[in-house]
Amino acid sequence: MKRKDFLQLTGICGLGLITFSQLSFTSLQASYTREQLIGKGNPKITGNTYTSKMHVKAKRAFLDMKAAAAKDNINIEIVSAYRSFERQKEIFERKYLRFTKQGLSPKDAISKIIEYSTIPGTSRHHWGTDIDIIQTNTGPRPASVLQEKHFYGNGQFCDMKVWLTLHASSFGFYEVYTNHAQRKGFSHEPWHFSYAPVSKPMLEAYRKLDIKNILQEENIIGSAYFTDTFIAKYQKENILDINPDLL
Ligand SMILES: [Zn+2]
Question: Which of 58, 89, 111, 130 has the smallest count of CB within 10 Å of its CB?
């Protein structure tokens, strides 16, 4: 073999090795533990309040998007970001107890909760990639901000909503629970956006978990009513019937 050919071959092999190790590094990074996926700690979460705690990559992208929107005179503010398992458990159980006290059957109480809220261990907010956002430079803040009416028509957050429809995807953010008539699961949430570059691989990993097992292990009030049929439907509609850009 001529020396030149040999050098070319080793050069290619060297390149091959680098590419291979980079690939394995990427796939290592994309593996998530059960704990990370159900909101029980993730070293990539940064921030210290419930409106600032986010996955470090999602936060960087959000700050870029916020700065770009500000240039168009739209101030975006997060009202909810990372939510731990324990926090989601408190929310779910408080609602469950309130609704059953009001006379709803356990089954009906759970159906009512999962119009907008998730069962602990199944929230996309556990990943630090999902945020609920509003606009803040359009007058006094309404008492209850996360309502559809504020995002459409003459609603106070309408300009932000239009801006996000045009620009959010270029920052990696997508609305999760769209208003497509055929979509099932959670009601339309015009305020809830997800950072796809991280949430897509997390959802992929999440789908491999045994949800039923998790829900039964965690001692959640009302969990006796999470039957096989209920969980299969919840998985199909509430977890997976989302914006196809996030699948
Ligand atoms: Zn949300």
Answer: 111
Task: For residue range 181-192, list pLDDT tens digits in order.
Answer: 999 999 999 999
Q: Ligand 1 center to residue 42 CA distance, Å?
A: 19
Nearest-angstrom CA–CA distance, 6 and 4: 5
33 alpha carbon – ligand 1 mean position (Å): 22
Q: What is the mean pLDDT of residues 70-79?
A: 98
Selected from 3.30.70.120, 3.30.1380.10, 3.40.50.300, 3.90.850.10, the CATH number assigned to the domain covering 32-246 reads 3.30.1380.10
Distance from residue 44's CA to the centre of ligand 1 (Å): 19
For the chain, what are the domain ranges? 1-30, 32-246
pLDDT for the residue 3:
52
Q: Is residue 29 scored above 70 in pLDDT?
A: no
Cα 212 to middle of ligand 1, angstroms: 22
Question: How far does residue 17's CA lie from ligand 1's centre (Å)?
Answer: 42
The mean per-residue pLDDT over the stretch 97-116 comes to 97
148 CA from centroid of ligand 1 (Å): 13
